[in-house]
Amino acid sequence: TQSLVVGTLLLEIEANLNGDPGTVLEVQGTAHWLSGSIYPAIQVASGGTLTISGYNYHDLQGALTNAGTVNLSTALSANANIANTGTFHFLNESGSIYGPGGQTFANTGTVVVNTTYTSTIGIPCVNDGTLSIEAGALSFYTDLVNNASIAIGADATLTLSPDSTWFNTGS
Prior knowledge:
twelve-stranded parallel beta sheet
């Protein structure tokens, strides 16, 4: 396995980042993804921060595993699975995740929505952590299986897919 480790440097990605199968982009410091496709798997370590922003396309081709912080303020095309054990922030007017099918968003950490607009999760989601909608709205356009807690603030909205939402015992 080949690795590109981002430590204390700021890495700004504004084009395609390619790698051989098994290559991992490990974020231990701060990385800012401005646009393009990332083909290696991304691992955000505890204490690391990945900010995904900008108005151009963002195409995730390798799995994203977050144990630190991800700040999403743009549309992310997820062609691979997302696993969150850290904190995943939906910020700004366009923080959304969508995919062509077969991907999942697995949350055992904390997902925070704090925006004045609607953020969208358009791939199946399993929540075993916390969904916190502080301000704005969060919409699920596909499956949500909730096994844990959802907190909805006074100025917040949660919209669920009518055909495929499950709230299991204890949620």
